[in-house]
Amino acid sequence: MVRVRFAPSPTGFLHIGGARTALFNWLFAKHNKGKFILRIEDTDAARSTKEAEEQILDALKWLGLDWDEGPLVGGPHEPYYQSQRLSIYKKFIAQLLNEGKAYSCYCTSEELDVRREDMKKKGEVPRYDGRCRDLTDDERNKLKKEGRSEVIRFKWTKPVLPFKDAIHGDINFGEHQYDDFVILKTDGNPTYNFSCVVDDHSMEITHVIRGDDHITNTPRQIALYEALGFSPPTFAHIPLILGPDKARLSKRHGAVGLMEYKKEGYLPEALMNFISLLGWSPGNNKEIMSEEELINSFSLERIISRNAVFNKEKLDWMNGSYIKDLPAEKLLEHVLPYFKEAGFINEKTDKEKLIKMMELYKPRTRTLCQIIDNADFFFQDKLSYNEEAVNKFLKRDYVPSLLDKVEERLEQLQSFLFQDIEKTLRELAEELKMKGADFIHPLRVAVTGKSVSPPLFEVMELLGKEKTLERIKDSKKIISK
Fold first, then answer.
1. CA–CA separation, 299 and 302 (whole Å)
2. pLDDT at position 241, please?
3. What is the mean pLDDT of residues 449-468?
4. What digits encode the pLDDT tens for the residues 144-203?
5. Based on the number of CB atoms within 10 Å of its own CB, is 376 exposed (0-12), middle (13-18) or buried (19 or more)?
6. Which residues carry out catalysis?
7. What is the mean pLDDT of the segment spanning 355-383?
């Protein structure tokens, strides 16, 4: 059975890069009817926080990535927190020490820094020089008596061997020199390379799917698998995500915590679809894909080996497509929390009117927050007028007379359905021999306070006759100031 894992460190929020790694693992597991395991790598006690952990779990759940084993759900390989697995690591540390494949090192940070600088001056690659590799018992005891801290280093004995990557093919580091790297730190916590090897073996992980930035760790991990007598998994390294300027993705490109996208009004289905195409292709140029289609189409073979480019405009377009395709009732479910937070609605608000409002905004919005920003005029008792729109459209000489005539015609209407409003006002425009834009733009600003809105006659119907007429009267007062 395929078993994959996502193993975040709770030292910060889940960003696009981490979310994509989680998604690719999840899709691969679902496609192969395997298991997706969530493991929290929290051995960095100084930087790990409960807040970051909760945010990561919330972000994964919001994106729709459920896990088969891990925090909150348990599983046969508990615990799924590295900080609770220290006894497991120490058992394998002891095995390597007893077999002469690891050793205690007492070199201080200052001593190591001096040696690295000396190597640089000589044109050598800075690396650990093996100073403590063959200490005698007497030398070791002397260093202990000096009160020196102890780390455990892995004894590197073989050349770096090529390995096959499921995405990049054969990877050969050539003459790259690896040194005796640390596997247990002075605080008793294992290093990343050691803990993930032990955990991936213990949790029966078959495929390690992770970012390209881990490729240089892979030879170290393969050496540990061999030293411990474990069979290594299949490695698949995903290319990096870059910004439009081809620089590594950063906050200025949109590399914010995933929950910021929720806050900004992106739908999880749209974000999942967008992230899936950052470095993967279904092979048919299709871009809008359901979760089921993504699962059915996903394979490691179709992951693109070159770096992906994050395009915010494409995300906005895709989110807009998802919003457009939502039934109005479903869209309202997504928007209601934003309306409530803005103080726009209460339990007495007419739900049918809100659903009609969603129909108006569906084709012309890209994020849920745009609906909140653009629909505020529906909920205002006293309209907030956009100053630029007032100066551009309401301050025209003919507008006061026009508004008087519009007000008179609307007051005469028995039905205030948009079809009747449109018929009446278009007839008035013809009588006045006015161009549509010269007629509609001032009226739109008078009724909405904005120069852009959904179709004006449908807006008027939703506002109702009383509020529409009230706003026309108020706009005339604005003009006279």
1. 6
2. 92
3. 96
4. 999 999 999 999 988 887 899 999 999 988 766 689 999 999 999 999 999 999 999 999
5. middle
6. 251
7. 94
Q: Residue 45: its pLDDT value, please?
A: 82
Please tell me the predicted confidence (pLDDT) of residue 392. Answer: 94
pLDDT bucket at 348, cuts 50 / 70 / 90: confident
